[in-house]
Write a structure and sequence with these properties.
6-stranded mixed β-sheet, alpha+beta, globular, SH3 type barrels
């Protein structure tokens, strides 16, 4: 018997900045390592947002975001700030150093 996945679905949703400007579409979600949480849960932590053709995807924290009634994800950062964030790697694996760099960029450390 298959158990339903209790995690929210973000993949495919559009991401808007704090002013309502389209940043891109979520192509992947990075979850916290269950070994690093008190209850062993996997919590969504970073969105990989693809802005479209000829532009690099970026990591965007889920922290502070919300989902609109029509399923769009609104993040508390300006589109240009997201575009200036470190680019997502092809495999979407975050090293400790990359996490530190991202947390400093978004001031969420």
């Amino acid at each position: 018997m298959n158990t339903p996945d209790p995690r929210p679905s973000y993949t495919g949703h559009h991401v808007l900045d704090e002013h309502g400007h389209d940043i891109g579409r979520v192509t992947d979600v990075i979850y916290t390592d269950p070994d690093t949480t008190d209850d062993g849960s996997m919590t969504p932590h970073w969105l990989v947002v693809d802005p479209g053709v000829l532009r690099a995807a970026h990591y965007v924290p889920i922290e502070g975001s919300y989902t609109t009634a029509d399923g769009q994800i609104v993040v508390p950062w300006d589109k240009r700030w997201v575009q200036s964030a470190p680019k997502a790697t092809g495999d979407h694996v975050l090293s400790h150093d990359k996490v530190v760099e991202l947390e400093q960029h978004y001031a969420i450390a």
